[in-house]
Amino acid sequence: MFCLCFGAASHAQKPTASDQLVLSNVTVVDVRTGALHAEQTVVLEGNRIASVEPSKSAKHPRNAPIVNSRGLFLIPGLWDMHVHLVFGDWFPDARDISLPLFIANGVTGVRDMGSELDIVQAWRNEIAAGRLVGPRIYTSGPMLDGPRPRFPSSVAIATPEDAHRTVADLKRRGADFIKLQSLIPREAVFAIAEEARKQQIPFEGHVPDSVRASEMSETGMKSFEHLIGIFEGSSPNEDDFLKGDKTEGKFLATYDAARAAALAAILAKNQTWQCPTLVWERGGNLVDVSDFSKDTRVKYVPAAWKNKTWKRFTDEITQGYGTDDLDTRKQFIERELEVVQMLRKTGVPFLAGTDTPAGVHIFPGFSLHEELQRFVAAGFTPLDALQTATINPARFLGIEDQAGTVEKGKLGDLLLLSANPLEDIANTQKIAGVVVNGRYYSRAELDKMLSRVEIAADGPSSQGIK
Question: pLDDT above 90 covers what percent of the chain?
């Protein structure tokens, strides 16, 4: 079963100064309440927070490394709850691109929603052993899809027997949850749910095209991605949409607020988490009119990603627009924000996720900050938005006693900011330092990390040269 590889400091002897890190005179942001605790000293021992105390009374060894954090704000490390780490061979060199980009952007944990399980597990072991810099990883391994999967890192599911066998096999191999895609036949969907309950492993992902969102919520699906199923279930034409021929124009034309509210009530009752990937929802709808040529983040992206995989996705997306013109797509983006706010007010819980790098020009690490801004655009307060990438992921993963807040005993995954994120959520991008598993990276070290990624992105293998 899933292990964050938390590690534990030995209690056989008192920690030495070299095992400790002191963040002095920092303002700690309480992501539960929004309270700001000024002039605090946070002491880490190994990979854990040993104490959080007022600086006037805090005690620590005089020769312990001290980071003077006066004027800085301390928040928990961020989580991107929808990424793809190893997507077949579609994103080469992700080990040297995505992993450090997450850390350089303060993303210290990820939920991997479809990858090559053995490779990701090996990376996770290397990270835990300190041989590789990267975030904590929670992974599904390969995605479950219909008889003819559209993407790599997928398992074809045609029958209930396929479903039972595959879920049991993934549990045996150490997958942390089951990821569903869109094309799974209806009978097989419910077989996946049945076997997942038997194996005591969560199932998450797309609401399959053959099933209603209300049904998936009632059967225990833990999270929905991309708002799939929400607009279908908010329309009197839901039965027709189950048969196909869905467009955003039709979603807009048939949207029924009463049906949407009824579905929201079901999701809230069952606490079915939503990971709407708003930055990608906007990006996909505007990909034909977006120009990233002058975006400074492009230098961190290998040519093979830009010229092969992203081009392929772009072609497929634009062909899929059908009769939906640009104005219709822009209206749909705004309606999505309205629906997200309605769901939140109804009590549906939310997670921040980006779909990086599968989403075109969705950049590992960087785009998570954009996702938080999209939540604010949907009517969330900066605190609400911050929770979707901190305490909410901890609650979702069942590790709130280990992560999600800056408190004694929690993991040493922290983000130092030069401005208050509760005043402006864009301030999460003003990164002064990152602590990962107790290891501190200064701004200068993070900049060097980014420089190495830029070099890796320009390397021969990243150009598709063998």
Answer: 91
pLDDT, the chain, mean: 94
Whole-number Å distance between alpha carbons of 296 and 90:
22
Under a CB-based contact definition with an 8 Å cutoff, are residues 278 and 375 in contact?
yes
Q: How confident is the model at residue 461 (pLDDT cuts 50, 70, 90)?
A: low
Mean pLDDT of the 190-211 span? 98
What is the pLDDT averaged over residues 288-317?
94
- In this predicted structure, the answer to whether residue 14 has a pLDDT above a threshold of 70 is no
Residue with tokens 């869905």: 246
Asked whether 283 and 270 are in contact (CB, 8 A), the reply is no
Are residues 372 and 388 in contact, defined by beta-carbon separation less than 8 angstroms?
A: yes
- pLDDT tens per residue across span 214-264: 999 999 999 999 999 999 999 999 999 999 989 999 999 999 999 999 999
Q: What is the CATH number of the domain that holds 268?
A: 3.20.20.140
Q: Which of 397, 427, 447 is where one domain is finished?
A: 397
> Which CATH number belongs to the domain containing residue 432 in this structure?
2.30.40.10
12 Cβ partners below 8 Å, 6+ apart?
A: none
User: Do 63 and 193 share a domain, yes or no?
Assistant: no
pTM for the whole structure: 0.96
Q: Domain total for the chain?
A: 2
Main-chain phi, psi angles of 186, to 5 degrees: -55, -50
**pLDDT value of residue 54:** 98
Q: How many whole angstroms separate alpha carbon 428 and alpha carbon 188?
A: 42
Only one residue has tokens 């993934």, namely: 170
Q: Are strands 73-76 and 414-417 parallel, antiparallel or unpaired?
A: antiparallel
462 occurs within a structural domain: no
Whether residue 275 is found in the same domain as residue 317: yes
Bridge partners, residue 36, by sequence = 29
**138 shares a domain with 31:** no
Are 200 and 305 in the same domain?
A: yes
Point out the domain boundary residue: 354, 378, 397: 397
pLDDT digits (tens, 9 = 90+) for 36-91: 999 999 999 999 999 999 999 999 888 899 999 999 999 999 999 999 999 999 99
If asked whether residues 72 and 82 sit together in one domain, one would say no
Q: Annotate 9-77 with DSSP letters as a single string.
A: --SSSPPPGGGEEEEEEEEEE-TTT--EEEEEEEEEETTEEEEEEETTT----TTS-EEE-TT-EEEEP
Q: Which domain holds residue 426?
A: 17-76+402-457
100 φ, ψ (degrees, to nearest 5): -70, -30
